[in-house]
Every structure is written in structure tokens, then in C-alpha cells.
């Protein structure tokens, strides 16, 4: 599904990712853990196509298709979703309008029919209930005045609405209380299935108690230094990252 | 009048003097006004308040042709859906509506005002007083409230100059919705002087839209005298022109008056749009809110100059001014000059001003959600302007402004 080979990425001339390789097959959930500054967010921005993240070598393919030459919106239309570590506040943009505009832009790009206003409202109300956002929040300017936790709920609402083929969750768990963590688990587990993949970037094991990953990778010094099963997360929680920082 | 009244006159000023001399119907007061204007000439960039909008330079070499053609074909207004009572000032010539005069209202063609004391030192206003032949006068009778808006369309098609005045009086406790549009592909100079009197408890909702040809030079000045408990709301949208300046001068003569001024400038190409205002608070408990948003791309230039003045006896004034500029290209320009001049000690007055580019983080966020670059930029620009549009109480006018905004964004 998502395959990354020998990925080298520089930002402003500094090399951050140094030959990263990763393969997340369809239907699987992988977690990436690692110390601060190891390149986790660089990886997620590079996959999503942010300007200023220069790929100097390597390849990223989604279901065999090279996505590195695509614009961020084209990658989104291919089904790539990034749950942002720090979601934006966008004053003046009404939340429901924006999500509908985005959803329809993706659908049009895929040659699908646009969702009608009535179907959209029904759907977003249903999903908003799951992520714990009330109607009033949907009518407000996007994320404006929302708490950190509410912004993460808004990310999960969009993920539930877009039903992406591949989702990257960049520290979605940071700043969340237990109830919100459970909610994230619920959204991911409901979408989890054949034909869909997840990459969960996190510092801690606690989210992985709600979403059992198929594989856990340790990212340090710009490459994957260790991979294992779900038990690796628990091991890291105990031993910390020091051994990997030294190794990198 | 013989010889030049000007010191170092430009070709345009010499032409204006010849045109003025050739007129037979000018009053003595107009002659005096012309002489006062000639002493000053058009304001140049060295003049206080005109640094960024140099009328002297822009008009220097304009051909001093007289008022444009008499009759032209006029397309329906952008506000036709509101079924307004439509007045036109075509190349300076006033056309009254053909229909019956509504109850509670009077209008007609009047002699122009001979002098406006508070504008004596304003060169272009003084020239307007000298040159305007006839004025449009509208009076809203005591207590009248017209649901139907009054529309004044300023249409300029010529390459010469034209001058016009509008005198509006809103009587005690009367209300009116007034829309003004500046239109036409002309490449001349148009000066409009709007003199407004709001009596006790009167309300005016004034909407201004400028969408003229790029070559036009426009000076539109609104001088308002605001009495007790009167309310002056104004929303303006301008796409600028070669040189355009919308000036609002409001004097609060009595307590408890209020004003809400919202403006938006969308400038592209080489266009220039200037919103300048001066609110003088002379009495207590007046409230003023002002919000300006300017978007400039290419080599477009947006000027905002706002001044709140509070006299010593005008206590408990509550006045806030905000100006934000969004620059979409490296050559686009925004010039802001917010000013507070306060002599009273128990007031709440504030101003804020910002300028910046589109937020790259927000752009990437929107694009990650599936919007292409153009759509993402348009959404953020719309959001930036949203506050101005949201302040418009009439949905139909707000929609008309949204359409103009989209047209501008699409023309990118």
C-alpha cells in the first residue's frame, strides 16, 4: 500500500531523513515511535507534499503509484489524509462549508459525484456525534477558539468524513484525555479494514492500547532503526529511546 | 479672470481654468471657490494626507476636455434585484427616476452648495464647489422609513472631467438605505461631493461599490453632519482604478451618535484604491467602529488613512479602528495610517493595523484536504474579507458584494 524506499529529505539544506524505508501493506496499522527531532513530522509532511521538504533521493508510492510528483491536493484525492499535529485555526471559514467543499473537491478529482447538501449534513451530524463535537462547533469558524483536544476531534471528524485509503496520524494523541483517546481508537478501528492503511506517529504507548498496531517502528536519526510487533511499544515505554539515539 | 490663477499650473489646471472661464452661469461664490482652489492646485505627495495618492501627478497631463457625452446606453445595475429607486449621474449630468416620488421623500435638482466650511482647506472639494453645475438633492421626511433602497449610479464614460454633488438630508427619526455605485469604462477625472445631514435619531445605511475602468481617476468625498442619536453605517467595496480615493468625513455634533464604517479594497494590475476617513467626535457618548480590509496583488496599491479625533468635552467616546492588509505579490503595496487625536480623558479609543501575506500553514492545510491552490487561496482571501461582508445587514447587498469578490478572485 504505502511504500517508502531510501527516502532522503532536506529542509533548508539540512538532511533530516537519511535513507528511510518503510512498507505498510493494505489493511495494516503501523506505528512510528521515536525521540524528539528524529524526523517524524518531516516524514508526515513529506508524504503529504508540503513545500520546502526537498526529496533528494528515494521513492514514495501509494498502491504502486509514485506520489512525490503530485500536488498536495492530488495526493488527498488519491486518498491520503494527514491528521495534523497542530491543526490550523482558520478564521472566517465556516467549518461545515469547508469540510463539504473539501470533500466535493476530492470527489470531483476522482470523477465521483458530489455529495448533496442534505446527505452531507446527515453524514456530518452522525460522525460529529462519534467524535464528540456538537452542532454549534460545526457552525463556527474552523477551529477558532477550540481547545487542543477539540482541534484533534476535528481532525478525526474529517478523517471519518473523507474515509481516506491511507491516513497518517501525526501525534494525534498529544494533549488528549482518556475519553478522547478512546474516541480516536474508535474512529480508527471503525475505518480499519482491507484496502486501508494507517501510520500512527506517537511518542507514547497509550494510544496503542486502543489501537493495536500490526507493526511498530522506531525512527531515530532520520531512518528506521528497529521494527517489531506491538510488544515493541511496551518495551520502548520501559527502556526509553536512549539506546537508539546513541545508535543513530 | 485673465492670466493664470495657478502658480506653475499643469496642462490640466490650465484647461480647467479655461473651462471655468467659458461658463456663463457660475455664481460669485463659485468664482471665489475657483480662486481658492487655484491657490492650492491639486494636492501632491508633499501635502499632508496625500503622500500616497498623488492627484497632482496623476492629473498633470490629462486632456482637459469638458463633461462627457450627454446620453449613453446604461446596463442594469448590480443591485437591480433590490428594486431600488434609481438615480443616475452620467458624466456629471443628473437623471431623476421616471416614476412617482414615494411618500415621505422629496428629491430634485438643486443649485450646488456654495461653501462647506469644514472643507475650505480641501482642494478637490473646493474645486468641486466651483465646477459643479447642479446638485442632486434628496430629503427623507421626518419619521419616514423606506424599505426600498435609493440607488445613485455614478457612470463615467468620457476621457474628460466631470463634477457632481449629492445633498441628502435624513430628517428626525427617518431611515434610509442608500447605495452608490461608481461605474463606467471612462478614463477621465470624476469628482463627487456628497453632503449628508443626519438629524436627531436618523439612520442611514450607505453602501458604496466602485467598479470602474482601470483608467479612471475618482475622488468621492462624503461629508456627514451627524446629530444626536443618529446612526451612520457605511460599507464600501472598491476595486480601485488608476487613482481612486473614497473619503469620509463625519462630524458628530451631538451626543449618542454612532457610526460603523466597513471597507474592502481589492486591487490588481496597476490599480490604486485609497480609503481615507476622519471622524470628529464633538460631543459625549458617541460610538464609532471602523474596519478596513485590503487585498492587493500584481502592482496594486491600497491606502488606508483613518483618523479619530475626540474633542475635550466629548467624554465617554468609544471608538475602535482596525485595518488589515493582505499582500498577494511582492510588488503589491499597502499603506496604512491610523491616527488617534484625543483631547478628552475619559474615552476608550484604539486602533490596530496589520499587513501580511497568505498564511502558508493554512494554505497547506487546505490543500491537504483536497483544495487546489487556486481554491485554497480564494477561500483564505474570502475569509479575510468575510468580516466586512458579514457586517452588511441586507443579505441581498451582502450577496452582491460576495459576487463582486468572487469575480475579482476568478480574474486572477
Q: What is the SS-derived class of chain B?
A: alpha/beta
Biggest β-sheet strands, sense, barrel of chain B: 10 strands, mixed
Rg of chain B: 21 Å
What oligomeric state do the depicted chains represent?
A: heterodimer
Give the overall form of chain B. Answer: globular
Strand adjacency order, main sheet of chain A: 6-9-10-3-11-12
| Portion of residues within helices of chain B | 10-25%
Weakly predicted, low-confidence segments of chain A:
none
Strand content of chain B: 35-45%
Total number of beta strands of chain B: 19
How far is the first residue's CA from the last residue's CA of chain B? 50 Å
From the helix content, strand content and strand pairing of chain A, which structural class follows?
A: alpha/beta
Please state the average pLDDT score of chain A.
94
| Helix-residue proportion of chain A | 25-40%
N-to-C series of helices and strands of chain B: HHHEEEHEEEEEEEEEEEEEEEEHHH
Q: What is the straight-line distance between the termini of chain A?
A: 27 Å
Flag low-confidence runs of chain B: none
Q: What fraction of residues of chain A sit in β-strands?
A: 25-35%
Helix-strand sequence of chain A: EEEHEEHEEHHHEHEHEEEHH
